[in-house]
Amino acid sequence: MIRRLSQARERGIPEATVARLPLYLRALNGMAERGLATVSSEDLAVAAGVNSAKLRKDLSHLGSYGTRGVGYDVEYLIYQISRELGLTQDWAVAIVGVGNLGRALANYGGFVSRGFRVAALLDADPEVVGDRIAGLNVEHIDELETVIRRRGVSIVVLATPAAAAQQVADRVVAAGITSILNFAPVVLSVPEGVDIRKVDLSIELQILAFHEQRKTDRMTGGPAMAEEWPEAVDL
Amino acid sequence: MIRRLSQARERGIPEATVARLPLYLRALNGMAERGLATVSSEDLAVAAGVNSAKLRKDLSHLGSYGTRGVGYDVEYLIYQISRELGLTQDWAVAIVGVGNLGRALANYGGFVSRGFRVAALLDADPEVVGDRIAGLNVEHIDELETVIRRRGVSIVVLATPAAAAQQVADRVVAAGITSILNFAPVVLSVPEGVDIRKVDLSIELQILAFHEQRKTDRMTGGPAMAEEWPEAVDL
DNA sequence: CCCACTTTGTGCATCGGTTCACAAAGGGAC
DNA sequence: GTCCCTTTGTGAACCGATGCACAAAGTGGG
Questions:
Q1: What is the structure's pLDDT at B168?
Q2: Its family (chains A, B) (predicted)?
C-alpha cells in the first residue's frame, strides 16, 4: 500500500515554516475576498513577500494540496492552513496589564482576526480595575487564577511593567498556562514546556539603528576606524 | 605588524548576532545599576537567556573585549555594544498613525531607552491632529516630508491601519527614509536598500496557537488523524 | 617564579533552513 | 489519444548559525 498522503506529515513542521504560515493565510484571505478560486505558488509567494520555492516547500510540509499545472485552491488551502495552525477552534486570551499598550491590544480589531477572543483584562492598579475597555470589565489581578480556569483561557498576553512580568508569569504558569506572549522588556524564566514569544519594540529599533548607522557610515567613508574608549583605557 | 585588534571585525556581524546584542545590552545595564564591575560570559549568558558559547562567539565578532580568567568589564562592554549598535548618537523617530497603538508607542517610556527620541507624531484624521500626546503635537500627514527633513528623522514607525501603510511607506521612502518599523498587518513593498522590520501581534498569536494545539493534541492522543475537508472534495 | 585555577576566544562538527533546478503530474487543444 | 504547456513537489548543494570542547591567556597564591 503506497501511502499517498502524509509522506512528509509524520509530525514535525519546521519552526521557520510555522512562522510563515500566518503570512500565507493572510494573503490567501485577501485573495478569497477578491474572489480568486485558485492561485499559483508564484503569485502567492509574491503576495506574501517570499520566494516561490520556499513557499512550495513550506506547503509541502502540510501535505500535497496543490494541483500541478493549476496551482492551489484558495479556499481549500485556507482551510488546511487554518486547521494546521489550530484556528478552527477558538482561543480565549487574557491580557494582563491594562496600561497604554494593554488597552491598545484590547482594542486592536485585527487581533481577533479569526480564532482569537479576548476573554479577560486584568490589572493590579485599583484605579483601572472596573473600567470598561473594548466591552470588557477590567478585573483585579487577584482573580487571575479564577478567571483563567472559569473562562478556559489558554493564552496569556503580558503587557505589564517589566518589574511585574516575571511574577505574573510564575502565577499564570502555576495556573496551567503554557503559552505566553510577552511585551515586557525582560527575559522571562519559565519551566520547560511553556512557550514564550516575545515582542520588544526597543530591540527592533536598536536593530534598525545598527543597519541605519552602517548605511550612513558607508556614505561618509566608514567609521572613525579607531574610535576609542573615551577614558584612557589602553587595551 | 601583528594586528591585535579587529581580526574578526572586517565589517560583517552576523544578523543573528545583531539581533541579540540589544539583549546583552539590557542585561549589562541592569548589572551596571547593581554596581557590578565585571561579569563572566556564563553569568551574562544566563541573564540574557542564551548559552555562554553563543554569547562569547557573538561578542568576539565585535572585537576581543574580555579578559581571560576574569570576564568582561561591564561599563566597557556597554560602551562597545552601544557604539556598535549606533546608540551613541541619538535617533529621531517619527510615529505615523496615532490610534490606540500609536498612542501607546508614543507614551512607552522604555522605548526612549537610550539613543531614541520621538520627534514627531503624524496622523491623517483631522480629529486627532492638534492633540497633545506625550508632550508632542500631533501633526497632519501632509507635513510628513517637511517634518522628516526639518527634524532629521531617520527612523519611521508605522502604526497606521493596514490599508494606509503601503501608501505612507512609499512617501517616507521617497522622503529618503531607509529604516521602517511596521506594525500594520501587511507585507510592504519597498526598494532595495530600505530596511523593514515587522511586528505583528496576530502572527505571534497564531504561532502560539499552533504549538498550544500540538501540546493538547499530544495529551488527547493526537488529532483526529483523518480530519477531512468538510465538503465532499475528494483528493 | 611556578603552579593551579578561571575564563575567554575559536576551530570544527553539526544542524536547520534556503535556493536551485528538474522530474513528475496534470490540463487543454486538436 | 497524443503532444505541449504549466506548475507542483522535492533531491541535492549550499549557507549561516549553533554548540562542543579545548588551547591560549590571564589571575592569584605560595
A1: 98
A2: Belongs to the transcriptional regulatory Rex family.
